[in-house]
What we know:
The chain has eleven helices and eight strands. The protein is of the alpha+beta class. The chain has a three-stranded antiparallel beta sheet, sandwiched between helices. It has a three-stranded antiparallel beta sheet with strand order 6-3-7, covered by helices on one side.
Amino acid sequence: LWKEMLEQRGFKVNAQQYEAGALYTGMANGEIDFETDSWLPTTHESYWKKYGDKLEDMGSWYGPTSLEIAVPSYVKGIESMEDLKGQADKFKGRIVGIEPGAGEMQLLKSKVLKEYGLDKEFKVVDGSTPAMLAELKRAYAKKEPIAVTLWSPHWAYNEFELTKLKDPKGAWGEGDQIHTLARKGFSKDFPEVGKWLKDFKMSEEQLTSLEAEIQGADKGKEQDAVRTWLKDQPDALDKWAPVSGGD
Length: 247
């Protein structure tokens, strides 16, 4: 999205995807200008501790994020984690999970299920994010009950009618905010872009519909999907990257 907006504003942009460690190192070294996907204060805490003094925090553009169990909204009477008690048979005793190494999975198995007394009733099935989404899609098409590990923001909420199960005990913990971080000195070098990034905010509806549009695009056509999405949000570009003066 930012590549597209900046190009429409006349900037040359080189956008690349990095794994978190390389991303923070690159910004701290001044080789990368900015990135928009720092989950703080919790998920990326170790990187922020290590590199924070070499970076500019442009603030949070989305939040709070959350981790949750979700069920299709046609499964009636299940609104909260507490409602799963005694309902294991309905879900074949399974919660369909993602990669076993994911922080969310460890939290679910070690803490969340125990806090709600569900650890004897439900088994968390290890797998992968694509496998979990495929299983959700299959169950959804047949209107079968299914419980999956999800998080917000996620495009699945745009694609399917789902209920995020409430967490009255706060077992999942507080959600992160998603921050934009830049190399030191970036806003001095690009004051206008710096201001745009600092003022940027996105709603869950905007973010999940953008992700869904990109998700549905053919490989290599992701940028076209962003363009289509921007056209459907007629005021977004002028709001997020306003041009000063009369031009």
